[in-house]
Amino acid sequence: MNDTNILEVNGVSRVFRRGGMFSRNTLTAVDNVSFSIDDRPQVFSVVGESGTGKTTLARMILRLVEPSSGEIRLLGKPVNGKDRIDNFAFRRLVQPIFQNPFEAFSAYLPVSTYLRRTALNLKVARNDREADEAADQALRSVGLGLDRVAGKYIRQFSGGELQRISVARALIPDPKLIVADEPVSMVDASMRMNIVNLFRQIVEEKGVSFIYITHDLSTAYYLSDHVSIMNTGRVIEQGLPSDILDNPSQDYTRELMGAIPTIGARWTELEEIDRRYPTGDRATTESAARHQTTS
Ligand SMILES: Nc1ncnc2c1ncn2[C@@H]1O[C@H](COP(=O)(O)OP(=O)(O)OP(=O)(O)O)[C@@H](O)[C@H]1O
Questions:
Q1: Residue 287 Cα distances to 101, 102, 241, angstroms
Q2: Keyword set for this entry (predicted)?
Q3: CA-to-CA separations, 243 to 70, 216, 219, 225, 239, in angstroms, rounded
Q4: Counting atoms of ligand 1 from 1, which one is nearest the CA of 230?
Q5: Ligand 1 atom at minimum distance from 56 CA
């Protein structure tokens, strides 16, 4: 165990029962997965097709599902079990971003009220004024501001705008780690790169690390410092994105790559979308540029 690692996942498995309470049928959704994320701000991607166990893994890290075996540690402290890190400390350190931003907020509360409550509940602020300041600061990190959001309900935003607001919500407690489960798969194609670039910008500027869960190898390659490929519950290969894509050791990875018509063409398309829909205050990052030049 290394206390400077933000996250350690040691031999973690999750078995689900299939076919009712008394059934003996089981499914191993996550099978003996191990990896660690050191304290350098980074994007750590977990890539695989539907049903390979990515969401189950994310939910175990977020403490929404208990592992059947193995251990997850956050800054050296257990995430599960009787000595686990307390809930409040956990929520200050780790925040989720989910696939559907419309499900991340209440439909009955203005989004600004929701953000204010988040700041108060997480004790980032002592009163409404401080909470609004915290919300405004977080919204500015994603290219918005409280003035553009105040009093509006989720139906008044596009999916892309609302996903940016859910990134802002996640930033309110100044977390160490954000677990983003398919965060761009329900966002309009024109906004996808915008959000992906925003993640990179947050890594560089705020020192937050992301676990980026996706079926889309192309955005993972573009965005990540590290890629783990998952198939049937197992991590089958992992490493630097350029190493994996230039030299995949597994047939499954080659199949995933085959889903991208040609890597080079895809980057051109992503860059074109990015040019047409700029983030505004987006930083072009060294890491993204590095991956682009290797493609
Ligand atoms: N609560 C549950 N009970 C039973 N089976 C489950 C449960 N949650 C997930 N599974 C099963 O575990 C397997 C892995 O699911 P999981 O959602 O983790 O995969 P995934 O890679 O995230 O896929 P997707 O992108 O479609 O969500 C699937 O076969 C799924 O049906």
A1: 27, 31, 11
A2: ATP-binding, Nucleotide-binding
A3: 28, 17, 16, 11, 7
A4: 21
A5: 18
Give the binding-site residues of ligand 1, using a 6 Å CB cut-off: 16, 27, 29, 48, 50-56, 215
Q: How distant, in Å, are the alpha carbons of 6, 16, 74, 149 from that of 12?
A: 16, 14, 14, 40
Q: Are 135 and 115 in contact (CB under 8 A)?
A: yes
ipTM: 0.95
* CATH code (residue 193): 3.40.50.300
The whole domain housing 83 covers 7-294
Residues with Cβ < 8 Å from 144, sequence gap 6 or more? 161, 164, 165, 168
In a domain, 236, yes or no: yes
In a domain, 102, yes or no: yes
1 domain-assigned: no
Total domains in the fold of the chain: 1
pLDDT digits (tens, 9 = 90+) for 228-240: 999 999 999 999 9
Q: What is the pLDDT of residues 125-146, one digit of tens each?
A: 999 999 999 999 999 999 999 9
